[in-house]
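Example 9 (inverse folding). The structure is encoded as follows.
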């Protein structure tokens, strides 16, 4: 059963899969609730470099499944090195001006969408479809982010018939 999805353009596919998989299993507890992430390329006629991450489950424990980290367990040296969380650090993910050394190696209250976006290329978009809406994060050439939610119904009903006919052909 599909629980959700993201489409994004990773800076490095292999490393993004490694970081996301570890984040989901260790910090979100997906292994314990019966969920996992599956990664696949997008269709050949879609923009190059994008991949689809599908959140899958055969029998998820809905009370334990989350996309937000609630543990205060610190990010340790093994997470930073073996599981490549150093990539998140390079993106400023752990920057915290209130801390003495300017860093707080914690993922508490951080969301999966934030991890996916941090691992995405600049000048790209992260999308996640949920029912009749799509959640979008645009990342500009400097890495600045803009988040929004759009109605798929509104988009489809307002697209010109000419566009629909040409796309279907």
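The amino acid assigned to each position is listed next.
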């Amino acid at each position: 059963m599909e629980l959700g999805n993201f489409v994004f353009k990773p800076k490095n596919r292999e490393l993004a899969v490694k970081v996301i998989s570890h984040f989901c299993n260790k910090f979100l507890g997906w292994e314990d609730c019966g969920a996992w992430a599956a990664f696949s390329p997008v269709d050949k006629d879609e923009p190059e470099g994008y991949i689809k991450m599908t959140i899958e489950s055969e029998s998820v424990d809905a009370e334990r499944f989350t996309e937000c980290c609630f543990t205060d367990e610190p990010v340790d040296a093994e997470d930073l090195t073996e599981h490549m969380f150093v990539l998140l650090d390079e993106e400023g993910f752990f920057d915290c001006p209130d801390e003495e050394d300017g860093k707080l190696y914690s993922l508490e209250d951080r969301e999966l969408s934030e991890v996916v976006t941090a691992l995405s290329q600049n000048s790209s978009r992260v999308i996640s479809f949920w029912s009749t809406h799509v959640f979008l994060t645009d990342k500009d050439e400097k890495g600045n982010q803009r988040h929004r939610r759009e109605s798929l119904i509104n988009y489809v009903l307002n697209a010109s018939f000419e566009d629909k006919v040409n796309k279907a052909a």
